[in-house]
Amino acid sequence: MTEITELPDKATGFSGRLLPLQQRKTVTELREGIDLGYGDSASKQSAFWTMLVLSGVIAAAGVISNSTATVIGAMIIAPLGTPIMAVAFGVIIAESTVLRRALAFVFFGMLVVVTIGLIASVIIPAGTDLLANPQIASRTAPRLIDMLAAVATGFAGAVGLARRDVSDVLPGVAIAISLVPPLVVVGICLGQREPALAVGAFLLFASNVLAMVVAGTILFAAAYLTGPNAMHRKTPRRAYVVIGSLFVLILVPLGANTLATLFVQTWSNRIEAAAVEWLAETPNAEVLDVEFSSNTATIDVLSPDALPPEQELLDSLKGQVPAGIEIVIDGTEGERTIAGTVG
After folding, report:
1. Can you name the residues that pair with 326 across neighbouring β-strands?
2. Measured CA distances, 190 to 4, 118, 128 (Å)
3. pLDDT in tens for each of the 343 residues of the chain?
4. Looking at the domain that runs over 263-341, which CATH code has it been given?
5. CATH class for the region spanning 13-233
6. String of b and e for 67-99 (b: at least 16 CB within 10 Å)?
């Protein structure tokens, strides 16, 4: 790696305002803070694995007990953000050793936390409705808005690492970005044989990682690849290609999931409207809620009298929702009736 002994004499524009020269760390200082294989690597790696395991255990306890405060505590001490930012750093300095090492820490760290979640899943009785736990449900259906938050958080983290005067923001960054809790949820869902939910939680983790790398790459490129005394004289084309590729990787799955969420919400509204009309002639009957799970829509109904024929409801839904959706009616006395499948 080509070290720089001094920063440009003058910095203007984006990088100059965001990272003033008098507060900007040198490349060596930045590497010392985020490269786990640089300097006192043994101590850094010992601290990384110790804190990662502890944060995984705390996150698992917080998720299972539905304790937001406990999950936040796990986020604060989670060290996964360090090698993730080292990935962005490795891209910028164009040093494959740094990049491979950072990716290895992210990958094996991910496996460790997923394993902790998998072990913790034995505490949960088989057949438990995982979506009834908000700590799990909120992490299994990421959307584009989550990516927006992750990109902003990634920029905040990169600024905190590159500037000497704003390092205090890093605990807040750790809380804002969701890294360890989604991985714990992946393990719990796999242990409970819910692979679809596990994929959703992993997508949240992966999108957050990619968003952080994108943000870090952009900021580090602006700070260290421009100016008369910059690290590299040539145009950092590789860094920009990586940025574009990562954005595509983020946008495609999250965009698809956001679109799916919008469709589900639309179908839920149509089912609720149809159910309200279906119960219009039943005194004191009302629709409390409509919930989707996979291809099944459950209608929570409150009615003191017998319900109308279910086929009437199914007929009214033809053309309103996709064919093949199963309609389940959850009655007042806890009775669940499978009305049938929309034709």
Report:
1. 296, 341
2. 47, 7, 13
3. 444 444 444 455 556 667 777 778 888 888 888 889 888 889 999 999 999 999 999 999 999 999 999 999 999 888 998 899 999 888 888 788 888 999 999 999 999 999 999 999 988 887 777 878 888 888 887 878 888 888 888 888 888 888 877 776 777 777 777 899 999 999 999 998 888 889 889 988 988 888 888 888 888 877 776 554 455 545 456 666 776 777 787 778 778 778 877 888 888 889 889 888 888 888 888 888 888 876 788 888 888 878 888 888 888 888 888 888 888 888 765 455 666 677 6
4. 3.30.70
5. mainly alpha
6. eeebbebbbebbbbbbbbbbbbbbbbbbbeebb
**Residue 24, beta-bridge partner list:** 163
- Residue-wise over 211-247: b if at least 16 C-beta within 10 A, else e? bbbbbbbbbbbbbbbbbeebbbeeebeebeebbeebe
The boundaries of every CATH 3.30.70 domain in the chain are: 263-341
CA 240 to chain CA centroid, nearest Å: 23
Range(s) within the chain of domains with CATH label 1.20.1080: 13-233
**Residue with structure tokens 């004289």?**
233
Those residues whose C-beta lies under 8 Å from the C-beta of residue 292, and which sit 6 or more positions away, are 264, 267, 268, 298
